[in-house]
Amino acid sequence: MQKLEKISENNLISYLTKNFRRSPEQINALQESDAELIRIPGTDSVLAVTTDSIAEEIQSGLYDNLYLAGKMAVLANLSDLSAVGAKPLGLMLNETFNPGTCNGNIDLLQKGISDACLEANTFILGGDTNFSDKTQIGVTAIGIISDKKIITRKGCGPGDNLYSSGKLGSGNAFAFSKLLSDKQNSGFPFNPKCRIEEGQLIRKYASCCMDTSDGVIATLDQLMRINNLGFEVVSEMNDYLNSDVLELCKKNSLPAWLTLAGIHGEFELLFTIPEENTDLFISVANLINWEPVYLGKVTGEPSVILNINIVMTPLNTEKIRNLFSYVNFDIHEYLKELLIMDKTIEEHKEYENETCR
Amino acid sequence: MQKLEKISENNLISYLTKNFRRSPEQINALQESDAELIRIPGTDSVLAVTTDSIAEEIQSGLYDNLYLAGKMAVLANLSDLSAVGAKPLGLMLNETFNPGTCNGNIDLLQKGISDACLEANTFILGGDTNFSDKTQIGVTAIGIISDKKIITRKGCGPGDNLYSSGKLGSGNAFAFSKLLSDKQNSGFPFNPKCRIEEGQLIRKYASCCMDTSDGVIATLDQLMRINNLGFEVVSEMNDYLNSDVLELCKKNSLPAWLTLAGIHGEFELLFTIPEENTDLFISVANLINWEPVYLGKVTGEPSVILNINIVMTPLNTEKIRNLFSYVNFDIHEYLKELLIMDKTIEEHKEYENETCR
Question: What fold is seen in the domain B161-356?
């Protein structure tokens, strides 16, 4: 059994909540759902609630304009509602401004927020405003599930098919272009889609679902720990990475799998469909003009295995997930360590090729 | 008509939300409810949602231990649910830590949060953790109203009786003792009560309700603007200020009404009961061992009139509410200006006495 607590982020959550009582109306266990699922007394409906702040992303310069920060604050929360297939009722805003922020920047931030709401046909319901040195945007999203069918991060079985809601890698490619490369990449497009409609379909056919807000490998690792099962991503990266991502990797000699390893995700949904539901699911998906991206299979052994250049490569996902905190959140050290990991993998492959000969 | 926008805080809210669309399921208008009220599609229930962060209170040293900060973060939000008479379903946490915060302080904070939840028999449902220089605790509270009877800040009529859920002044007395006086007062007790049960009663009998989180005068001023009516507080302060508050004022020669004027409230509920409901309301309140505190009457003229030393004194509530931002959030200047206002009132009274003679 791969323990959740081996991952520093999970460990922190366990520590913070160790003395909290859980609501008897709460359906999901700690860590096991992207949004909290609460029965609404006296009804058959279930409330889905999630909260997420944009803080470090502003301070690090990753979201260096407030329009993007506002848009992402909304999208990150809607992404969690998507992962449980909830219909949004609306969002609560918790904005912390530096008192020196000019009206122009506040307008940009609010426009990012309202554009993202408009795109998802949802609403800001209310909020609170605070002042501090550091700008920060907190959002809490509230959604509803009316038909009693629940999906969480837990529930897949060996042999289930693993899909993504869309092509992958753009979150980390954007972060690389913004923070780590020279100017020629800084225009890398980052426009995560809102997957609310897709999430409602996934809820009906899938056995588990989680969004890739922390990157694809972190998502697979978390699903592995929660389900005590593994994932074999048999598809080739050319088939499931975004074409812009592939181009950026080529141009910068960046190993493509690092766009799955980094912690700035693309806000797609990873989900598993039992074999017997797969044909029906795919045809219903096509009805809403959506083409889920096939990645691979759920396996009985808890491990994450990636097809890296046609070699099925088991990954040390614990090390990958803890790496950013291990390097004290130094983004340059982080990339350096990831590149060392890539080199080790490549050397290992050469060694295997040697012994095969 | 006293415009909402004359108050800088209201003005900021209008500015921030000017381009936001409102949900067709939202019952309350902007500013007109302590918690947002949203119809839950497919049910007869109404969701009540509110969000409030503790940020400035930590930075100013007002909440100089994290146990109190945690407790108040929960209580401030539950107070908003109380004001609409909702039953809490639970709370979402949004914690921002300084990376240097020691485990002992984190434990204190979490204990404040869980103690406040236990007291109100509610639960933390989930949350998000961020890191920044400045510690900040955001909470979003979610509650439910199942019986279709709604109360907001709007709806009182001339002649209605004005009550408070408990004795007043402790919020500002605490702030004075903490930030403005010498050490001898620093142990001033500040233990706001959770008014969830009372709120559910108020909802059934009252015509409007608002909590005093920003102080009593700010609350009356806001209700005045929203209802375009006035309030005459005929009761004497000795009868409705907390005895500890009266003692602190005496010891520090502080005019007692300033504990209603300051912006750090006591988290009681101010509400209005139509004359015809009053007897029944009071007897039902007594059944749960609760004694609402009588303050005065709703009047037809939009003004706030306080009984200051047996003289009915109209207050410039616009000036009082805008004062803290007017003095650039300098707490010492703020007190100085409030004392000048008090002196003007006293001189005016002497002048009136002169002319009466």
Answer: Phosphoribosyl-aminoimidazole Synthetase; Chain A, domain 2 (3.90.650)
Tell me the three state secondary structure of residue B89.
Answer: strand
For the domain spanning A34-145, the CATH number is 3.30.1330.10
Chain B hits for A125, Cβ within 8 Å:
23, 26, 36, 38, 49
Task: Supply the pTM of this predicted model.
Answer: 0.95
Q: Among candidates B278, B32, B272, B320, which has minimal Cα distance to B164?
A: B272
Q: Report CB contact under 8 Å: B90, A26.
A: yes
Among 3.40.50.300, 3.60.9.10, 3.30.1330.10, 3.40.50.150, name the CATH number for the domain at B27-145: 3.30.1330.10
- By C-alpha distance, the chain A residue nearest B123 is A23
A 16-55 residues with CB below 8 A of B? 16-17, 19-23, 25-26, 35-36, 38, 40-43, 45, 47, 49-53, 55
Which residue from A222, A234, A125 is spatially nearest to B49, judged by alpha carbons? A125
Q: Is A133 in contact with B136 (Cβ distance < 8 A)?
A: no
Alpha carbon A143 to chain centroid, angstroms: 18
Let me know: does B215 contact B263? Beta carbons within 8 Å. Answer: yes
User: Using alpha carbons only, what angle is made at residue B197 by residues B195 and B198, rounded to the nearest 5 degrees?
Assistant: 65
Distance CA A166, CA A274 (A): 19
Judging contacts by C-beta atoms under 8 Å, the chain B residues touching residue A133 are 133-134
* Complex prediction ipTM: 0.94
Quickly tell me which residue has 């040390």 as its tokens. Answer: A316
Q: Where are the domains of chain A?
A: 34-145, 161-356
Which residues in B98-203 belong to E strands, given as ranges?
A: 124-131, 136-145, 161-164
Confidence bin at B100 (pLDDT 50/70/90): confident
Q: Does position B233 have pLDDT exceeding 50, yes or no? A: yes
